[in-house]
Amino acid sequence: xxxxxxxxxxxxxxxNLTGMLINGCYFGSLYALxxxxxxQMHFSTLQTxxxxxxxxxxxxxGNMLAGWVMPRCGAKKQMTAGLLMSACxxxxxxxxxxxxxxxxxxxxxxxxxxxxxxxxxxxVIVLRSAPSSMTGTASAIHATxxxxxxxxxxxxxxxLFFQVQMPWRxxxxxxxxxxxxxxxxxxxxxxxxx
Length: 194
Description:
membrane, 6 helices, transmembrane helix
């Protein structure tokens, strides 16, 4: 049974909400992007994988860099900056054409790098918010909510992709708006000590 005591902490709730929504946006857009590249822009599977490789590389590098940056600027500032970077990246992805341009690569760097900057401090907040006897449970709740976010994001992206004429023009601004709203929530509600 899930101890409801954990949900009495606003930092815990905000970090979990952030995790669920950024996973939904990231994996939903990744799914839609792969469909877009293959179905509408006629990329092969290999070309699609290569086109998406900057996202994977930036996510990996950003996570490593995020661990180094967090002690220097704090979780609140790092999460806010990462969310705003990602929002800019999502908007930049509106420039996607069959020819991957420098603008799109820069958007991918912002999108994945910003997302990577959010994850380590978000996880630290979840673990710090729980009593030491419940850190395993807190971590499991966090991981579960992020997976639910991914599932819902992919389902919505798939639904939009086959129901809307230009789903990319809906998904990217929506993800940017969600990330901007999360950045504002974190900036206003997350204690500096979190």
